Each structure stands twice: as C-alpha cells, then as structure tokens.
Amino acid sequence: MTTSTSALLSKLVPNMSFGSPLDDWRFLVGEWKGKSKDEFGEKGIIESLAIFSMEPGEKFIMGRHEGWCEGRLLNKSITLLFFDKPEGKFKRKSFFSYGFVNHEVEYARSSDEIRFDIQVEPLPKEFEGIRWRSYLRKISENKIAMGLEMTKGEGEFKRYGETILVKTS
Predict the structure, then answer these.
(1) CATH architecture of 21-167
(2) Residue 157 per-residue DSSP state
(3) Nearest-CA neighbor of 101 among 123, 124, 74, 121?
(4) In this structure, what is the dihedral angle of CA atoms 160, 42, 123, 109, given to the nearest 10 degrees?
C-alpha cells in the first residue's frame, strides 16, 4: 500500500492503522558500502559502511555507520530514524563518536527523499554560525545517497559531502 493510499484510508477510517511512511524505507535494512572522494572536509577516498536494522523495534530504523579515509577511522555514528505521527514528520537522532548529537527534523519529503534540518548538541566551537542540513535519497532498492549541506548565516546551502552506498546484503 502506498503512503498516499494509507493516508487517505487513515482519514476515512481514523481508528485503524494502515502503516506508516517509515514502511517505505524498510528496504534500508541490511549492509551498505560506499566510497566518495574529497568529501566531508577530507582529502582522499572515504570508505563508508552502514548497517541498518529494525532496532529497537518496528517503529525505528537504526543505522550504525563508520567512515574511513586511507586506513584512518574518521568517525562512527548511530542513527535512529522514526516517523513522528503527531507532527507528521520524519525525525532522526544521530550520535557521533566526535561527542555531539544531531537532532534532525524533516523539512521536505518526496517518495524517494527525506531532507532534514539539523540542530547540533552540544554545538562544537568550530560549528558556530553554521547551519546544517542532511538528506537520505533512494536511488533504487539497492542504492542510496546520504549527504550533508551547510551554510554560514542565512546564505544558500551548499553541498558539504555525499556518499553513494550500495546494498551488499
């Protein structure tokens, strides 16, 4: 059942559950690998690994991520993606080995992409005056793009980095 059909049925029969927009993203469950070059403020080839599961339960998609550049671990993170039904928006919490958390709230969505505004906590000194956005885009059932955009002040957002990941299992 598509998200729009589910939404229509939910309005017609309000006390029945017809799924969640999260259902459209369950294809993520599994292992994904990708490479990018000269992205995310790094020089060289960045290798990425993401493993998605339905933890801690069916209302969440948890991702465990690692980024490596030329044999050096850049970061690790854990993300929890969920749909906030009362607000009608996707939200994501991303916990980074750097010591901060991204609180991400959907500001735009299509059938194959979710775009998030990010609030960083605690705000690292080097991030002061910078606004961040992220996105998750489905290219196919076996290929996704994950990216980050930034701007200083009220300027136009520019790409900070993108990784194309391919499902390996």
Answers:
(1) Beta Barrel (2.40)
(2) -
(3) 121
(4) 30
